[in-house]
Design goal:
Elements lengths: L1 E8 H13 L5 E6 L6 E9 L4 H11 L2 E7 L3 H4 L8 E7 L1 E7 L7
Antiparallel strand pairs: 1-3, 1-6, 2-3, 4-5
Helix pairs in contact: 1-2
Length: 109
Amino acid sequence: MKLVVAIIQEEDTKKVVEILINEGFKITKLRSTGGFLELHNTITLSAIEDKFLDHYLSIIKQNCKSRQRFIENLPLNILEGNPGYSLPVKITVGGAQVFVINLEDYKKF
C-alpha cells in the first residue's frame, strides 16, 4: 500500500480529481498556496494499493501540464531606495509534484 501525495496546479485540479473519482479512487483534497509565487494548488492524498499505483500516476501525468507565466521582477535599485522599473520575467509553473510513500499500516474506520 502506498500513500500518494500530489500537489496539483489549480487549473488542472477539477479534471484530475473528477477522473480519479470516476476510476474509483478515494481522495482527500486540501487547498494550498505556493510560498514563492503564491499560486493556488490542491494537495490530494490517496492510499493506493500497489497494483493500482501505475494507473493512478498515469492519470495525473496525462492531465497535468506546465504553463508559462510572467511575473514582475523586483529590481535591486528599488531595494536600495532608487526608483526603477522592471520587465516581466517568464517562468514555468504547474504540472504536478507527486510523492509516493510506503505505508506500513493503513486503517479505515
